[in-house]
Amino acid sequence: MIAIKARVDAWLGRFTMYRLILWVLAVLAVYSLVLNALGWLSFGLPEMLVHLVLCLGLTYASNRLVAMLFKVQPHSESSLITGLLLYFLFWPTELIPSVQIPDLAGVAVACVIASASKYVLAFRGRHIFNPAAAGAFIAGLTGLNIATWWAATPAMLWLLVPGVALVLYRTLKVLMACAFLVVALSVVCAVLLRGGMSFGSAVWQPIAQQPLLFFVGFMLTEPLTLPPRRWQQVALAAVVALLFAVPYNLAGVVANSPELALLIGNLLAFLVGQRGGIMLTYKGSRPMTPFTTEFRFEPRRPVRFLPGQFMELNLPHARSDGKGRRRVFSITSAPDSPEMTFGVGTAEPVSAAKRALLALEPGQCVQGTAVGGDFVLPPDAGKPVLLIAAGIGIAPFLSQLASGDSARRDIVVLYLAPSAAELAGSDVLAASGARVIARLSDGSPPSFMHDAGRSRIDGDSLRELIPDVAEREVYVSGSPANVDTLRSAARHAGARRIHVDAFAGY
After folding, report:
1. The pTM is what?
2. How far apart are CA 250 and CA 265, in angstroms?
């Protein structure tokens, strides 16, 4: 199973989160056209094609236009994702016997507002609301058209379920999705049972004919509108599920709808998260190892983060390799440092985004779009911890070891690397006061590190190196394959609480 999971993770690691969502939505759009041609959907094929072209074309064009007005570089992947979402939210407009102009106008309004909301309904360069939900909700207020969320069709489930599962697995939002589905299904089922529906039908109806799966897979988990911590995301999912499922109507003006539930959730997330984008001024870089580089930035205003968290950087580049321009990097500096640093693997082949990072000149600015992650040390500083790093996996630990409370903790670091030259952050490790154990494939570690030899790290060897491993909270960081192997070793050594942080490598 570990080998299969490693292969899946390696394959998914080739795609950024945005690119994966774009591809899944594109496949679902093609699938919907096939279903229509087979007669499994009630729309006309010309209507669906016109609807698809309108949503994609108008969101793409309006996004570029609004971005030009605000003098920023547009994010084309984001606009295409928004266009595909609106394609599934609005009923394709009838063209025969006559074109329904108000319906088309409503979809057009939704597309333009969705694009504009990224720049107008924003705070310090970061949009507050899910663009597709904002466009659909405001278009509904105009009376021209309303969102029907027709993706909630039984025939669509054959690809919708695996598509949503793939996205949730890649984005690590399975727990959040489960919280939403449990709460929403419970409420909807209770309402349907009170109305006299049988139990089986009450369970099947919301899954097959209400947009629960589409909503949670592609809308609720949109990263820029989420709070930074997992527990906050789970709590938000439960609140949005109640707003989604509980029927209400306020004075006949506003009634519950998926888009309104999501917009309220977006606002709540904004209030507890990193408000606004983060402008970083590039200061320089230095090699940490022959294959790792540390990049230094000065933020224009203080950035709230916890040691071990990551930041997503927006790295525009002209010659893209098809993986998008947003990348997630672990922060290696302490929260009280005047500069922010990121440890980045820069071994060849280097992606287009990393080439853009390497090409930065001092004084240039880069935007940080989000801060988040739960790979943080326990709040109780008296809890002993074991940090296991493989290669570049040392990056989040450097922030933790450089922070002020590391001296008060009982920390053991197990660092796996090919050679002593590839031990990044040795200066931070030496100054931290932590017990550092190095397992090198070739050579010996620096004198302040304990040499674990060259034997493979498994449950027995880990227990021999750290006899009290079962009493420690364990953190494992590195490539997906290394993380899976080392997590298994820690579990067999007796560790009960294990946290992981896998680096996709793009």
Report:
1. 0.82
2. 18
The mean pLDDT of 347-375, rounded to a whole number, is 87
Higher pLDDT, 504 or 214: 214
Strand order in the sheet with 292-299: 326-330, 310-314, 365-372, 278-289, 292-299, 340-345
Spatial distance between the Cα atoms of 255 and 252, rounded to a whole number of angstroms:
7
Angle at 75 between CA 73 and CA 80, to 5 degrees: 145
Residues whose CB is less than 8 angstroms from the CB of residue 87 and which lie 6 or more positions away in sequence, other chains included = 29, 51, 52, 55, 56
Least confident range from 102-111, 272-281, 409-418: namely 272-281
pLDDT score for 423: 93
| Contact in structure between 176 and 237 (CB atoms under 8 Å) | yes
- Asked if 243 and 264 touch (Cβ cutoff 8 Å), the reply is yes
- Weakest mean pLDDT among 104-113, 263-272, 318-327: 318-327
**If you average pLDDT over every residue of the chain, what do you get?**
89
Tokens at 450, concatenated: 């304990």
Please tell me the distance from the alpha carbon of residue 363 to that of residue 196, in angstroms, as a whole number. Answer: 67
d(CA 288, CA 54): 49
- The H or E element containing residue 183 is helix 174-194
On whether the CB atoms of residues 333 and 396 are closer than 8 A, the answer is no
Q: Please tell me the distance from the alpha carbon of residue 335 to that of residue 142, in angstroms, as a whole number.
A: 46
Residue 320, Cα to own-chain centre: how many angstroms? 21
**Residue 309 structure tokens:** 């968290």
Choose among 34, 156, 57: nearest CA to 107: 57
Residue with tokens 């419970």: 186
Q: Kindly calculate the radius of gyration of the chain based on its CA atoms and give it in whole angstroms.
A: 25
CA distance 248 to 265: 16
Q: What gap in Å lies between CA 379 and CA 377, rounded to an integer?
A: 6
